[in-house]
Design brief:
Blueprint: E1 2-4, H1 14-31, E2 36-38, E3 45-47, E4 51-54, E5 63-66, H2 71-99, H3 105-136, E6 143-145, H4 147-168, H5 173-177, E7 183-185
Antiparallel strand pairs: 1-7, 2-3, 2-6, 3-4, 4-5
Helix pairs in contact: 1-2, 1-4, 2-3, 3-4
Length: 196
């Protein structure tokens, strides 16, 4: 016997959990020093969202300059940070929305709309950074946009996916709340003898 359904009320915490994962990846992106790194030895360049650091191949210490001295640096940091703050607010609203017994589905759709705004802000920051960085900062050696920058994009992809789910969830309101009877399918290799 198989019970079919599009969603279940017990699974309601999956979306807030995914938003929490996006927050963790966003924190890693904001704090990480691996937005841009030297691709191979000698490691002479590394950058975060906030600063760019270089050193000569034989030096031990990094010489860092703030990217906040550039207009594009402030714009990239501000747009990504604003998106992150709205993401934290959406996470709190999602926990509240799924905690109450009578789920307000219009409220859930509003969270989905806010998540699209988060994605737009984060994408703007993630596009401004590499374009302007490579134009204005002298790059030494072979470099690559690295792990922290990748966490920023991963957070954005999770946010976009959650935004679609939050916007579409009200279409399955009855299934989520358990207001419809499940459909049972019986699979048997042979028909019962009394049906012949």
């Amino acid at each position: 016997m198989v019970v079919c359904g599009l969603a279940c009320w017990r699974c309601r915490w999956l979306l807030p959990l995914l938003l929490g994962l996006a927050i963790i990846m966003g924190i890693i992106a904001l704090a990480g020093r691996g937005w841009l790194e030297s691709e191979s030895e000698p490691y002479v360049q590394q950058a975060s969202l906030w600063e760019s650091c270089t050193r000569t191949p034989d030096a031990l210490n990094w010489n860092c300059e703030s990217l906040m001295d550039y207009g594009w640096g402030r714009a990239a940091a501000a747009t990504y940070l604003v998106g992150f703050v709205i993401l934290v607010i959406c996470f709190a609203l999602a926990v509240i929305a799924f905690s109450i017994e009578i789920l307000r589905f219009n409220f859930v759709r509003g969270i989905g709309g806010l998540l699209f705004v988060v994605a737009a802000f984060q994408i703007i920051g993630l596009v401004i950074y590499p374009v302007k960085f490579t134009e204005d900062i002298l790059l030494m050696g072979d470099n690559m946009f690295s792990w922290a920058y990748g966490f920023g994009w991963a957070s954005t992809v999770v946010v976009i996916g959650c935004a679609f789910f939050f916007c579409c969830l009200p279409n399955w309101e009855d299934e989520v709340l358990g207001n419809i009877k499940p459909t049972y399918y019986y699979s048997s290799p042979e028909r019962a003898p009394y049906l012949n």
